Amino acid sequence: MRTSIQKRKTKETDICVELNLDGGETEISTGIGFFDHMLHSFAVHGGFGLKIRAKGDLQVDGHHSVEDVGIVLGKAFAQALGDRSSIARFGSFFIPMDEALAFAAVDISGRPFLVFQADFQQERVGGFDTCLTEEFLRAFAINAGITLHTRVKYGANAHHEIEALMKAVAHALRLAVTQTGAGMLSTKGCLS
């Protein structure tokens, strides 16, 4: 099974992530309601089993918690993928959500990179600073060892824009991690 349990404890956060790339239960608790909603959507739309328990210094703000969840989730993806052989490797997806349209493309390459293009219409959604969306995706991509391109094409409501983006990332990843049985999809014979 393609699973991983990863933990990270610092003076700012205490995080545990349990990931199953092939499905399972979803339980998310970070202390940031909108972020929990986005992570739950990510798991459901990616077809992933995902449990996240995070405690952080929310009295400061959500930055440390959001970024560190991205780090730990990225490490879980990297471990669950193993040597990355026999997967589709690439995936891309558009998601519309009401007035918003978002796109994501992923290469599970072993070469971490993030392209993030979004200009959210509001600075906050509930207790979540919208600028933390980029911080989360950067931490995730770097620690998962993936190339991730994301773009919110348009929208008027930051909740819709971010949710469409997270669902697009999840669907792109779902396609990329699909097992093909075809060996390593690389002309070099390795990924990275």
- Give the % helix: 25-40%
Q: How many strands appear in the DSSP assignment?
A: 10
The helix-strand sequence is: EEEHEHEEEEEHEH
CATH class: Alpha Beta
In the CATH hierarchy, the third-tier topology is known as Ribosomal Protein S5, domain 2
Strand arrangement, major sheet: 1-2-4-3
CATH homologous superfamily descriptor: Imidazole glycerol phosphate dehydratase, domain 1
Low-confidence stretches: none
Tell me the β content: 25-35%
Give the count of helical stretches: 4
Average of the residue pLDDT scores: 95
Note the gap between the termini.
Answer: 23 Å
Largest sheet: 4 strands, mixed
Overall form: globular
The assigned CATH architecture is 2-Layer Sandwich
The class by helix and strand makeup works out as alpha+beta
Number of domains: 1
What would your notes on this structure say?
With 192 residues, this protein is of the alpha+beta class. The protein has one domain (3-176): Ribosomal Protein S5, domain 2 (2-Layer Sandwich). 34% of the residues lie in helices and 31% in strands. It contains 4 helices and 10 strands; from the N terminus they run βββαβαβββββαβα. The chain has helices spanning 33-46, 63-81, 132-144, 158-176, and strands spanning 3-9, 13-20, 26-29, 49-56, 90-97, 100-107, 113-117, 124-125, 128-129, 147-154. The strands form 3 sheets. A 4-stranded mixed sheet has the order 1-2-4-3, with helices on one face. Helix 1 packs parallel to helix 4 and helix 2 packs parallel to helix 3. The mean pLDDT is 95.
